[in-house]
């Protein structure tokens, strides 16, 4: 049998009221067995889950009318900073770009994450100077974000984007030259690519076009000069690992597993940053 709401997901469970097949993501615990969301919503059952009438995403988040709201906000932030860079110039960029530890002759001072400017780990993930770079990243954010956000829900999707961007910057900080500046939303975009792979596998979609897209993206990462491959790989791995935890968390302990996965990833990033800072200072 296949779930009546998710035709690509096999199941052996039926709703105790209407007997429609339901997958684990659609099951609502009842006094006897499980019921489907339609029966609970229609008042024909006795489900005991809070907010049972509210449809849920694959990761347990609430289904929103606008499945791209967070994506739109992220693009708006990137656009605002891009316009600020065009108006204010290099001085504005120098304050926000990702850099480990260096002397800046423009500012006349030592700058970088190792000097206590940890905010650069995130601000650099929303910063662009080149028009082509900005357009490419925003297209990726819009297209792939439009796939991922409805599957995770707004809060989990926002956490995924921020942690993917942070993980990309942390790996740049750990492996790149301390005076090498980098910027761009590529860490977030590649985090979404990693998330898309996990979601496609979870939904049992044909993985061949997805894996082909990932392979082409990685080839472009290492073939083009001047590309921060560390940000791409850091974001890709973080996005895939975090999404796996979000969509495979046991229903009974879903919140605990999901919060724990986010916290663990944040601790790993923090460990990389602290280790590199000690080495540089």
From TrEMBL:
Keywords: Hydrolase, Membrane, Protease, Transmembrane, Transmembrane helix. One of its GO terms (molecular function) is peptidase activity. The chain crosses the membrane at residues 69-88, 131-148, 155-175, 181-200, 207-223, 229-247, 259-279. InterPro entries: Peptidase_S54_rhomboid_dom, Rhomboid-like_sf, Rhomboid_protease_S54. Residues 116-247 form the Peptidase S54 rhomboid domain. It is found in: Membrane. One of its GO terms (biological process) is proteolysis. Gene3D superfamilies: Rhomboid-like. Its main location: membrane. The keyword DNA-binding does not apply. It is a multi-pass membrane protein. Belongs to the peptidase S54 family. This is Rhomboid family intramembrane serine protease. The lineage of its organism: Bacteria, Bacillati, Actinomycetota, Actinomycetes, Kitasatosporales.
């Amino acid at each position: 049998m296949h779930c009546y709401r998710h035709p690509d997901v096999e199941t052996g469970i039926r709703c105790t009221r209407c007997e429609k097949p339901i997958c684990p993501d659609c099951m609502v615990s009842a006094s006897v067995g499980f019921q489907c969301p339609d029966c609970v919503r229609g008042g024909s059952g006795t489900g005991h889950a809070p907010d049972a009438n509210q449809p849920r995403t694959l990761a347990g988040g609430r289904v929103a009318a606008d499945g791209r709201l967070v994506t739109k906000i992220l693009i708006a932030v990137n656009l605002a900073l891009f316009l600020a860079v065009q108006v204010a110039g290099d001085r504005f960029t120098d304050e926000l770009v990702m850099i480990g530890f260096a002397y800046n002759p423009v500012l006349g001072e030592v700058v970088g994450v190792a000097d206590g400017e940890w905010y650069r780990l995130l601000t650099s993930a929303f910063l662009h100077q080149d028009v082509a770079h900005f357009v490419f990243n925003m297209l990726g954010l819009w297209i792939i974000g439009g796939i991922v956000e409805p599957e995770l829900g707004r809060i989990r999707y926002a956490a995924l984007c921020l942690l993917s961007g942070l993980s990309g910057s942390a790996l740049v900080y750990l492996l790149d030259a301390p005076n090498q500046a980098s910027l761009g939303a590529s860490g977030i975009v590649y985090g979404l690519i990693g998330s898309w792979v996990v979601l496609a596998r979870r939904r049992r979609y044909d993985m061949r076009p997805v894996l082909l897209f990932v392979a082409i993206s990685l080839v472009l990462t290492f073939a083009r000069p001047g590309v921060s491959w560390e940000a791409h790989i850091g974001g890709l791995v973080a996005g895939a690992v975090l999404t796996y935890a979000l969509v495979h968390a046991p229903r009974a302990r879903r919140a605990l597993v999901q919060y724990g996965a986010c916290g663990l990833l944040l601790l790993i990033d923090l460990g990389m940053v602290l280790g590199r800072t000690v080495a540089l200072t």
